[in-house]
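$ run holo --ligand "(S)-3-Hydroxyhexanoyl-CoA" --emit tokens
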Amino acid sequence: MTLSSAPETASAVQHELRGSVLVVTIDHAPVNALNAAVRRGLIDAIEAADADASVRAVLIVGAGRNFIAGADIREFGKPAVPPSLPEVCNRIERCEKPVVAAIHGAALGGGLEVALASHYRIAVAGAKLGLPEVQLGLLPGAGGTQRSARLIGAQAALSMMLSGHHIGAEEALRLGLVDRVGQSDDVFAEGLAFAHELIATKAAPRRTKNARGLADKEASVAAIAAARAETQKKSRGLLSPLKIVDCVEAALNLPFDEGLRFEREQFLECRESPQRAGLVHAFFVERETQKSPETRDAQPRALDRIGVIGGGTMGAGIAVALLDAGLAVTMIERDEASLERGSAHVEKVYDALIAKGRLTHESKTRALQRFHGDTKYDALADADLVIEAVFEDMAAKKAVFAQLDRVCKPGAVLATNTSYLDIDEIAASISRPQDVLGLHFFSPANIMKLLEVVVPARVSADVVATGFELAKKLKKVAVRAGVCDGFIGNRMLAVYRAAADHLMEDGASPYQIDRAVRDFGFPMGPYQVIDLAGGDIGWAARKRRAATRDPNARYVRIGDELCERGWFGQKTGRGFYRYEDGARTGTPDAEVESIIDAERERAGVKPRPFTDEQIVRRYLAAMINEGANIVHEGIAQRPLDVDATLMHGFGFPRYRGGPMHYADTVGLDNVLADIRAFAQEDPLFWRASPLIVDLVARGRNFASLNQTA
Ligand code: 3H9
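-- output --
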């Protein structure tokens, strides 16, 4: 059971006496975040409890689906309003009557800190307890580092805070984070019974600051040292993970109050940092992108039986993503041999997961029970949604859609996974254009979080809403995109890769470019990515576009030179890097450098040196400028949709919040000045986006365009 919400006019925290228990209910929809009103209300309630002799225990519960989801993230970056959360937690801990926190749903971050400051804790089934601050570039800043370590020991506390993962009620009981798990899911009844029991047994307040979880000093020192070594290796670009370790060390070595002061200083430093701003932006972006005019206005259609056309890498990856979400999948291939290959591809994805220990044979068997293959389109007569993933050729796609038009039931959603073809043209080729949608997955489709929901002109709103609903089922970040060559992500990729190629021909080596881009925070540089994906893919696209390319546009031939030698990257053992004996990490190749030298000479370029910073500035200016064009043309609804695309499909570091957020942090006027300076050399490539020019003229930034769609 969950407690029902009080009317909106009611205050964010109510308290009422139930016998001798003061029941304090936090009621601040949607997730009981600890904004100023809730903080004030909690202090008032505890003051009331201490002042009233008839109160013998206090029970804190949350209304709605959660206990408390944490500090109010929307307050960060704004002037602080007292009381602070540390003051609230300290006041709860000082209460002279026993305080029970009864937890259902989320008790996260500051929410768990309120529970830790309470004297007793009970959780019911479905509770999620965690300290996820690290995922927002923060650390628990209301005593959480000091109290959690004292309560459950250094190792368990570090593991919770460094991973940011939440745990369930049973696991919390095992760790000693809660005292008991409720017999039923009625959190109010369970909490009240616990409070009455404490009164009956004359239990005194039990303050977590006095808990003995760090008593084994040797074990604590070892846990801290191990966490520090591990964190130093893993937390590139992030500020808070090492500070979390420092705070737990402070919990071990300092008196409680000094530890709290130390934690506060570290917290404030993190809160004011750009990486916190980037990660909080990312948090909201991931939620905002799910909102589109269509999801607001229309209901999704049914989504149980799904068809996938094509069993290549993409089709198989999509099938696995669907199966993993519990959906039934029918794969169509043109003949038995192709179908067998397609099924084998699906199995291979699962076998790779089993080999890595991420999946059991039983789970694979269970998933494959929902998988069927067929060579006849008629097998899709019952499908609610079909995703076409055949090769990128307009005639082939139209042939598939003609079949779908013939066999699918009325109202079935017909989606294409094309990366760049004109979906309006595909839609116009059949009798039901209103049912045709783009669902653009990224490889590997069962892993990559991004799904571009591409919206053709004649599609009906409920079909678009169905695309978003599918993304939700697949736990993907859906971004609404308009129809154009490359949609949002690949269109931007083409431009910033061209900027990288220009840098390479002008004098930077591909190895320096990759390093500079990695040091910025991308997991890989552009040339490593080309080698991983296969250089032949881009080569084919370049050949396809050759006829329509502006003859005056700069064209760098280095990639073509490598492909002409059959150097397609990892799969051929050579690309921009050498991969000796099947190695997955490449080594620089002197021969590639001579090819680059020869191309520079052929193009009449006198090579010049670039610093890593200059490389990153050009790379990002190209990315930001094209992102702005995409927003300007309405292909992306808002700058935040571009941010989500780059963070979830193209490795843009989350802690930098995406290219558009990043542009705001460096200042749009600075980005514009860079673009104009680069345009001196190549005015055709570096044309400032009208959107940037307009925003700079009006003294505004991209964030000002990020209202809800
Ligand atoms: C912290 O606590 C710091 C302290 O240690 C120190 C302080 C001194 N604030 O996710 P949903 C909004 S840091 C404000 O779609 P679900 C969210 O934006 C915090 N708003 O629902 C959305 O708004 P909208 C540590 C918040 O059911 C709506 O609530 N805590 C907050 O799928 C529904 O959210 C965390 O990091 C917030 N804290 O999942 C927990 N949280 O409707 C962050 C959510 O306008 N939250 N909103 O789009 C979550 O993980 C999930 O929201 C939760 C619910 C699991 C709670």
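-- notes --
The first strand starts at residue 13 and ends at 18.
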